[in-house]
Every structure is written in C-alpha cells, then in structure tokens.
Amino acid sequence: MADTDPTAAARAVIVTGGASGIGAATCRTLAAHGFSVVVSDRQVAAGEAVAAEVGGLFVRHDVGEPADWHRAVEAATDRFGGIHGLVAAAGVKSEYLLDSPEDPGLFERTVRVNQYGVLLGLQVVGRRLREAGAGSIVTIASAAGMPPAQSPDLAYVSTKWGVRGLSRTAARALAPHGVRVNTVLPGLIRTPMIAGVVDADPERVRQISAAIPLGRMGEPEEIARAAYFFISDLSSYATGSELVVDGGSLA
Ligand SMILES: NC(=O)c1ccc[n+]([C@@H]2O[C@H](COP(=O)([O-])OP(=O)(O)OC[C@H]3O[C@@H](n4cnc5c(N)ncnc54)[C@H](O)[C@@H]3O)[C@@H](O)[C@H]2O)c1
Fold it and tell me: Pfam families of this UniProt entry (predicted)?
C-alpha cells in the first residue's frame, strides 16, 4: 500500500454495497490509503472476495434490517477496535416509470434499500461515532437526485432526493459531536447496475457518451476517490455538502 494516508492510521470504515461497482471500488481506494475496510453486502461470495483482496472484513448485511446494522458495527469494532466511518453505497434501481402498473411493493422495496437503508446507517453508525466524538459518513445519492429531472425512474429518483435530505439533516445533528456527513452524487457510472444499458447496445452507449460533456461514462474508481475525499481529513471542514461527479452533465 504505497499511497498510505497518514490520517488513516488503521481507522475502520464500513462500506455498504461493497461487493460490487462503486462500493467495491471504494473498498479498494480506502484500503490503498491505509483505512481498514469492512465490506458490507447481501452478496456473500463477491463480498468475501473484495474483503480478501483488501485485507478487510466481510459482513453479510441487508441494509434494510436494523439488526444487521448492529451486527456490522459490532463486528467492525471487535476486529478493528472501533470505527471511523461509513460509506453508504448499497442501492437498487427500480424501473418504476409513470406508465408502470401501480406497484406499492416495488416502491417500498426501493425505498427500503436506498432510503431506509441509509437512514439506519445514519442512526446506528452515527450514534456510535457521536459517542466516539469523531467520524465521517458518506452517502451516495445520484445526479438523478438533482434538477433537472434526468431519469424516468420515479421510485429510484425519489429515494435519491430523499438521501440528500437525510444526509443534510443528520449532518446538522452530528456536527456538534465532531461527526461529518457528506454526499456524493454520481452521474452515469459503468457498474453492474447499468450493465443492462451498456452491455446490450453499443450504439446507445455512444449516444449517452456523446451527451456527456466529458464525452464518456464514469468509472467506479472516479466516485470512490470522491468518497475517500469525504472520509479522510482532506475534507475536515466539509459537512452537509454535496459533490456532483457526473462528467459535466449538470453543468
Ligand atoms: N452506476 C451508476 O450509474 C450510478 C449513478 C448514480 C448513483 N449510483 C448509486 O451508487 C450506488 C452503488 O451503485 P453501483 O452502480 O455500484 O451498483 P451495483 O449494483 O454494482 O452495486 C450495488 C450493491 O448494493 C448491494 N445491495 C443491494 N441491495 C442491498 C441490501 N438490501 N443490503 C445490502 N446490500 C445491498 C448489491 O448487492 C450490490 O453489491 C447505489 O446507491 C446507486 O444508486 C449509481
């Protein structure tokens, strides 16, 4: 680990959705900067593989389950002696469009992971960090949670707007206790979440890329570096802030 951050000093960070895409890239980036990593995901084999690669700990974790959050925090504390932070990257898309059949179950499943799963992290990890008097939480929303409306997925977009509100509210509540909360808003990033778009149709990829000012989709590592910025002391005076990383699409 050549690029070790002296401020990391064995501090442990829980990364939800750590088995795949942006979460997995965040695990690698944090480990490369000297953080201890707790890879949290409901996917066991992929999560264990990332944990082995980064010398971290895997915890099987459904972010919509309060008990799983308590287990994850205890496992992290047992292994690393405490926790420094959380990157809440677990998420699902819903494809719940205006003309979709009315489906309360689909809406609730999307909210449960993308929004309630973040709320639980802010509560359970936030309280633990508050007791310690220091720490940093990063939530992953989406450029689709910023105006102008860019995605037709009603359920997904509403949860990403929700993450922004949750994060700012928690940032205010936790700031007096030395705990920071910031949000990264990715544009279109090449991960399994959008594999249906990018693997199926090269022409569509060309069209999407041409519409992005920087001329391409983003890579997971480019979001991971933004998460690292907020987890580390590089961002020591930032809380309640939002960083859009979208190749200029919202510019
Ligand atoms: N890829 C993009 O273009 C893009 C754009 C904007 C925002 N995002 C957001 O970035 C985050 C990461 O997405 P990604 O693109 O890396 O997707 P991904 O599908 O590669 O990874 C998501 C991970 O979340 C995990 N997960 C899903 N439900 C879970 C649950 N209930 N409990 C625990 N883990 C669960 C999955 O198992 C998976 O490993 C998501 O919040 C997503 O909404 C992605």
Answer: adh_short_C2
pLDDT 10s digits, 208-228:
899 999 999 999 999 999 999
pLDDT higher than threshold 80 for residue 103: yes
When pLDDT is averaged across residues 81-92 and rounded to a whole number, the result is 97
User: Does an H or E element contain 13, and which?
Assistant: strand 12-16
What distance in angstroms lies between residue 226's CA and the mean position of ligand 1's atoms? 16
12-189+219-244 CATH fold: Rossmann fold (3.40.50)
120 contacts 64 by C-beta, under 8 angstroms: yes
Q: Which residue's CA lies nearest to atom 38 of ligand 1?
A: 17
Residues with CB under 6 A from ligand 1: 16-17, 19-23, 41-43, 61-64, 89-92, 113, 117, 140, 142, 186, 188-189, 191-194
pTM: 0.96
Handedness of CA 172, 174, 180, 186 (dihedral sign): negative
- What is residue 9's predicted lDDT score, i.e. its pLDDT? 54
Measured in Å, residue 180 CA sits from the centre of ligand 1 at 22
- The token pair at 15 is 């990364």
